[in-house]
């Protein structure tokens, strides 16, 4: 059983792993419904998150008379780890415990862990800094980049904190953890798709085929140290900035994330490996000969009724014809593969531009 803000990629990974997914998410888009054995909508919203009060009841109805192997949760649970604890009272949870999620997602806790292991990490604070232009404001447990803003553009609150801005390039590590060691699956480079209200909105990611082996080993060592201290298990990812002073760990994502699509393979399905890792069984990690990339296409203008688009292959998360969209809403996810990371990234960005003609020209 899958529970997430958006469950499509997890449902697709479950099918590749030979599993029959039951999906609960906020969207129930056509792709998810086609992949799922059964699907229901969760109560909540992108802005306010998943509604904790009705979560367990919704999952129980979804399970029905079946006996799901486990619940695998995706994005949306870091904001309220108590939801994980609530689910675990009724179902087996194949993933990190509420305690582990708190350890790695609480900004004070993560900062202390980084200090303990001498892992470079940006300074944090909770009061408005004296020089806000050098800082970002973030939502505790937020995901996807939409919640991140320059500190001088945002307002603070109980759920928010400030993190010093580090200049450099993004680098993300996907890994499988077993509570004792982090096994690297691969590295990816992500990029932003900025909007007026969300300058750090997630745009896409590309799987890297080659990377500095010394830095890759350093990342692996740090993640193993964090795994042993916090008990991380299953598919997780870590986001870094590579700047003038080297690597800085920005955050840990203790669940399958946005790069699952570009790392999963039919030969070594990652959700099957995830289940092995969380149960203490032996697992494998894939090998890659080519690169893959994914990108999200957004609409720049409000659309009263989305047109009927004939979606080509290598796309997913499609908006349904007739749907009303606000400016900045996601329209679909686009994929591409190529012999190199640079070629894959160029290809996927080009495909986004080509597809956008289907909804931009009619409403320009």
TrEMBL record:
<feature type="domain" description="ATP-grasp">
    <location>
        <begin position="231"/>
        <end position="279"/>
    </location>
</feature>
<keyword id="KW-0547">Nucleotide-binding</keyword>
<protein>
    <recommendedName>
        <fullName>ATP-grasp domain-containing protein</fullName>
    </recommendedName>
</protein>
<dbReference type="GO" id="GO:0005524">
    <property type="term" value="F:ATP binding"/>
</dbReference>
<dbReference type="InterPro" id="IPR003806">
    <property type="entry name" value="ATP-grasp_PylC-type"/>
</dbReference>
<dbReference type="InterPro" id="IPR016677">
    <property type="entry name" value="UCP016817_carboligase"/>
</dbReference>
<dbReference type="GO" id="GO:0046872">
    <property type="term" value="F:metal ion binding"/>
</dbReference>
<dbReference type="InterPro" id="IPR011761">
    <property type="entry name" value="ATP-grasp"/>
</dbReference>
<dbReference type="Pfam" id="PF02655">
    <property type="entry name" value="ATP-grasp_3"/>
</dbReference>
<keyword id="KW-0067">ATP-binding</keyword>
């Amino acid at each position: 059983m899958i529970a997430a803000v958006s469950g499509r990629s997890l449902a697709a990974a479950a099918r590749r792993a030979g599993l029959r997914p039951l999906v609960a998410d906020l969207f129930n888009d056509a792709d998810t419904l086609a992949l799922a054995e059964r699907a229901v909508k969760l109560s909540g919203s992108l802005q306010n998150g998943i509604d904790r009060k009705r979560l367990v009841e919704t999952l129980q109805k979804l399970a029905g008379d079946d006996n799901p192997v486990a619940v695998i949760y995706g994005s949306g649970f870091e904001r309220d780890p108590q939801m994980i604890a609530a689910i675990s009272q009724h179902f087996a949870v194949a993933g990190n415990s509420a305690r582990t999620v708190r350890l790695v997602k609480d900004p004070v806790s993560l900062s202390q862990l980084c200090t303990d292991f001498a892992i470079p990490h940006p300074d944090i604070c909770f009061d408005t800094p004296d020089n806000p232009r050098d800082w970002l404001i973030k939502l505790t447990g937020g995901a996807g980049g939409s919640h991140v803003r320059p500190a001088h553009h945002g307002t603070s609150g109980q759920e928010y904190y400030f993190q010093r801005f580090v200049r450099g390039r993004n680098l993300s590590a996907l890994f499988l953890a077993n509570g004792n060691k982090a096994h690297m699956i691969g590295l990816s480079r992500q990029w932003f798709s900025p909007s007026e209200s969300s300058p750090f909105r997630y745009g896409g990611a590309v799987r890297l085929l080659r990377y500095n082996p010394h830095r890759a080993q350093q990342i692996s060592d740090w993640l193993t140290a964090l795994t042993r201290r916090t008990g991380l298990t299953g598919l997780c990812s870590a986001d870094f900035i590579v700047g003038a002073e080297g690597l800085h760990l920005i955050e840990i994502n203790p669940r399958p994330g946005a790069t699952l699509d570009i790392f999963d393979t039919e030969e070594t399905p990652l959700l099957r490996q995830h289940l092995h890792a969380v149960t203490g069984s032996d697992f494998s990690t894939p090998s890659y000969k080519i690169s893959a990339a994914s990108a999200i296409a957004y609409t720049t203008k409000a659309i009263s009724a989305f047109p009927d688009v004939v979606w080509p292959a290598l796309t997913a998360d499609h908006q349904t014809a007739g749907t009303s969209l606000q400016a900045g809403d996601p329209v679909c996810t686009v994929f591409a593969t190529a012999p190199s990371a640079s070629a894959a990234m160029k290809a996927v960005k080009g495909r986004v531009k080509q597809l956008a003609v289907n909804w931009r020209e009619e409403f320009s």
